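Q: What residues go here?
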């Protein structure tokens, strides 16, 4: 079973096995070949920048003696490399602390031999065995092109094997060549004599190929795309000067809408399943604190994560479908120009859009952004996208603010539009301060031909990426949910009314919400909440919302003692209670237009999602980045809420 690993976490290979590194330019087919060699489940796509960490696995047993295979990030050139390209160069030059290559598979797109072979000189000069794997061979007959692998091998001085990794053709021959390959001394092959500068190496490769009869019609992918009738016909519309962007926007809106439409019944089913499980546990042991812990803490905590899995699966399925067909590469080129003006990348738009469903898959989707700066900047602004977890909160607060349903809908639409605009503008501002040394934001790629999606691979990849969501985000949110349950279920014995006349009260005892540790924590933070125009009971809801934002509604129902058989009855009762709730000992209402708008502003900006923090930490490999993001957005939400409430009061809005 193969496992993706970060560079710093790569395991050392068994000394008895050979480490074979797959190297090449982006979009050459490395990861697809990696799948064929290992039987693993790796992400493949028709645009560069997908492989942004090392992928490691073992060769399949039927290929003979085991080999440790490592898929390196794609490299355009060893001259002025990006951070991802530098990682590959470290491995190639044996400078990496964990990965030591014994052999290289140089993956070359057969439709672009000149461009892809110019990087071969850098690999060949390391003096280690090389086997060239020619991919995309199935595309050549569509334009009448031919490549003689045996003749090319004689010309280059290294083994060359034609492969079709999508169908497994040529893979046994490639493995056999790897087993038999011997390391030539540096300079013994034609590849090792190529110049170090990309332009120079490119000219030398063209001359080398031009002097041989191994290549017929070496025009490359540009001619392939032009001659391919299906690709040309579709692109006349999809890449139209005026229609291209609206079409791409419509596709993404359809993707976004599908996440809600298709996922809702599955989310309801998952939620119902966990609710039934919790009710079963409490029904068997109705008065047991352990049963309450299992039902509300463990089952409830896991359910809080699992309920979003249908959205994750649908999002990953549709994105993988767009990637594999070749369309998403075109969409990236369409939106690159406006986003690059803000310091973002063309591929930043898909994570931003998917952030309206859930920030977790949006952070995962940012992996496709090739440059580290723009990837981090995209991850930084994703919390500003109004995810689906905010919907119950906005619905409750807008209903408490206004009774007109039409006005509520307009206000909700304004919130979503504002999140997209403010997120984009924030990227422009933060990028200039946090990343002042900005390199030009360039999107250089060849547009691949359209290909029929491989449903088996898409489904396999969808499940692989979706299950990784549960593995990465599940444990942190379960732990937090358990902690919040403990805080809301227990309190200090000295704070309980039933021990008021007792001199030796227990230290900690089961307690009602009003006298729980959560309530005491909320009361301790009340001086901070007063400028927001709310009291400690709202503070308990805000603290509980850090596990999941939608928990705010149920937490408010608990602290305000609202009961109901279902969510609709509970919400209606909560609205009525909110309209009459006052500060303790006074007749001053808590929920006024100013304080409600302040709460909306707080939820708009604040990062109240521990699972998102955990995923950001994983994706950036930095607790500092995740902690600064959490503190910044929470502080910004608080400051903006206080400013909103006080400003409205200053203008006479209570």
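A:
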């Amino acid at each position: 079973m193969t496992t993706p690993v970060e560079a710093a976490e790569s395991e050392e290979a068994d000394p008895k096995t050979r480490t074979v590194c797959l190297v090449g330019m982006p979009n050459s087919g490395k990861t697809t070949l990696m799948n064929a060699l290992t039987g693993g489940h790796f992400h493949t796509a028709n645009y560069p920048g997908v492989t942004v960490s090392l992928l490691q696995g073992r060769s399949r047993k039927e290929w003979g003696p085991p080999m440790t295979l490592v898929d390196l990030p794609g490299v355009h050139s060893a001259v002025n490399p990006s951070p991802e390209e530098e990682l590959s160069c470290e491995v190639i030059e044996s400078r990496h602390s964990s990965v030591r290559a014994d052999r290289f598979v140089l993956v070359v797109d057969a439709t672009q031999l000149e461009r892809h072979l110019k990087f071969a000189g850098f690999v060949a000069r390391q003096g280690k065995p090389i086997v060239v794997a020619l991919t995309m061979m199935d595309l050549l007959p569509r334009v009448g092109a031919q490549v003689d692998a045996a003749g090319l091998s004689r010309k280059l001085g290294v083994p060359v094997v034609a492969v079709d990794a999508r169908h497994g053709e040529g893979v046994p021959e490639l493995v056999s060549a790897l087993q038999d390959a011997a390391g030539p001394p540096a300079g013994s092959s034609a590849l090792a004599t190529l110049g170090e500068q990309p332009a120079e190496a490119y000219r030398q490769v063209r001359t080398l190929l031009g002097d041989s009869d191994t290549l017929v019609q070496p025009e490359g992918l540009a001619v392939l795309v032009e001659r391919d009738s299906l690709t040309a016909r579709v692109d006349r519309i999809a890449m139209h000067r005026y229609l291209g962007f609206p079409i791409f926007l419509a596709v993404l809106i359809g993707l976004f809408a599908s996440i809600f439409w298709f996922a809702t019944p599955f989310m309801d089913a998952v939620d119902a399943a966990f609710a039934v499980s919790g009710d079963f546990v409490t029904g068997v042991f109705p008065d047991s604190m352990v049963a309450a812990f299992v039902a509300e803490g463990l089952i409830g905590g896991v359910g809080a994560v699992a309920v979003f899995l249908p959205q994750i699966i649908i999002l990953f399925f549709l994105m993988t479908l767009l990637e594999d067909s070749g369309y998403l590469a075109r969409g990236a080129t369409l939106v690159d120009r406006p986003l690059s003006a803000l310091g973002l990348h063309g591929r930043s738009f898909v994570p931003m859009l998917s952030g309206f469903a859930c920030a977790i898959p949006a952070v995962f989707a940012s992996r496709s952004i090739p440059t580290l700066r723009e990837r981090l900047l995209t991850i930084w602004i994703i919390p500003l996208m109004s995810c689906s977890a905010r919907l119950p909160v906005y619905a409750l607060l807008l209903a408490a603010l206004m009774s007109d349903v039409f006005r509520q809908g307009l206000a909700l639409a304004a919130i979503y539009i504002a999140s997209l605009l403010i997120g984009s503008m924030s990227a422009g501002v933060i990028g200039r301060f946090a990343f002042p040394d900005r390199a030009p934001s360039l999107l250089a790629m060849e547009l691949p031909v359209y290909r029929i999606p491989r449903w088996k691979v898409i489904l396999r990849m969808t499940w692989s990426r979706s299950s990784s969501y549960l593995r990465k985000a599940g444990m942190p949110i379960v732990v937090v949910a358990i902690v919040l349950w403990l805080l809301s279920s227990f309190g200090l014995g000295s704070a309980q009314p039933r021990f008021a006349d007792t001199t030796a009260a227990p230290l900690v005892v089961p307690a009602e919400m009003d006298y729980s540790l959560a309530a005491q924590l909320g009361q301790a933070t009340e001086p901070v909440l007063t400028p927001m125009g709310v009291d400690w009971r709202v503070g308990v809801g805000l603290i509980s919302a850090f596990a999941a934002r939608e928990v705010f509604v149920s937490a408010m129902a608990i602290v305000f003692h609202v009961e109901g058989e279902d969510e609709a009855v509970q919400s209606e009762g909560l609205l009525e209670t909110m309209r009459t709730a006052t500060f303790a000992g006074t007749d001053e209402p808590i929920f006024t237009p100013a304080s409600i708008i302040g709460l909306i502003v707080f939820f708009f900006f604040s990062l109240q999602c521990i699972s998102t923090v955990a995923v950001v930490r994983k994706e950036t490999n930095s607790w500092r980045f995740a902690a600064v993001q959490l503190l910044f957005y929470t502080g910004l939400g608080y400051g903006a809420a206080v400013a909103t409430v006080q400003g409205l009061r200053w203008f006479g809005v209570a």
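A: Context that may help when evaluating the design: The first strand starts at residue 3 and ends at 4. The domain at 3-226 is CATH 3.40.50.300 (Rossmann fold).
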